[in-house]
Design goal:
Blueprint lengths: L2 H15 L4 E4 L9 H14 L6 H5 L6 H12 L5 H19 L7 H10 L4 E4 L4 H11 L7 E3 L12 H10 L6 E5 L2 H9 L3 E4 L16 E2 L3 H10 L7
Length: 240
């Protein structure tokens, strides 16, 4: 590639990047290392009634709402699945684990949030988790003060991979969807951000990005630390 072409592409990319005015964060699997805890809760609860939850089946619901997860379990294990009792048991296992071990925060998150706070950069949470659970987890981990805008999966008609959650967050931010970056760990979340006309950036958690997802993600990072470094190296502050 010639130097002139490289400079042209860099100018074009920086022009696109300068349009970004907000970042929308997913929560579970992106900010909080909670997916292994959720998988444990479901696996143990289903096992109590004699059902086996494979890792592959659990991966199929990552990033989606609890309504979708319950639907998938019923479709997979049969209409006679006592889903209400299993859901309650699953919550008990998760709550007991959190009470004993806490909720781990993903490496690099606090540095990134602090960096954005110092620049008064707009941000929001767009999570498939029910709003009450989102608020509980943010309060439990001390992250509540970083976010004024929160949209939960029970506040929209369609959860991820539909764009509703992210579009609702953009509306509350009073920022156009095409001016928002979305940080996501799940394929459902990347599809939702892409459908919303936003800039999806992926930090994979339990499941590596598939060949179908890679073209939808503007960037793929191994952790939030690399995402933070990317924002700094691309002069993210020039768009404030």
């Amino acid at each position: 590639m010639s130097k002139a072409i490289a400079l042209l592409l860099m100018h074009k990319y920086n022009k696109i990047f300068m349009q970004i005015k907000a970042i929308i964060f997913d929560m579970d699997g992106l900010m909080l290392d909670t997916e292994p805890i959720a998988e444990m809760g479901w696996r143990r609860a289903l096992a109590d009634w004699g059902y086996h939850l494979s890792h592959e089946l659990y991966l199929s619901v990552i990033g989606t709402t609890i309504v979708n997860a319950r639907r998938v379990w019923v479709e997979s294990f049969g209409a006679d699945l006592p889903i209400e009792a299993i859901y309650k048991r699953h919550q008990e296992y998760i709550n007991a684990h959190i009470d004993e071990h806490g909720i781990p925060i993903k490496p690099g998150l606090l540095d990134l949030l602090t960096w954005l706070e110092q620049r008064h950069f707009p941000k929001a949470v767009g999570s498939s988790t029910q709003r009450a659970r989102v608020l509980h987890k943010l309060n439990f981990t001390g992250l509540q003060d970083y976010f004024n805008i929160i949209v939960g999966g029970d506040e929209v008609t369609h959860g991820k991979p539909a764009p509703d959650i992210f579009l609702a967050a953009a509306e509350l931010l009073h920022i156009s969807p095409h001016e928002c970056v979305v940080l996501e760990d799940s394929e459902a979340g990347i599809r939702a951000a892409h459908a919303a006309g936003m800039m999806p950036m992926m930090i994979p958690d339990l499941k590596p990005p598939s060949a179908e997802i890679k073209p939808l993600a503007r960037q793929i990072f191994p952790s939030l630390m690399e995402a933070h470094a990317f924002f700094e190296s691309n002069h993210f502050e020039i768009i404030l």
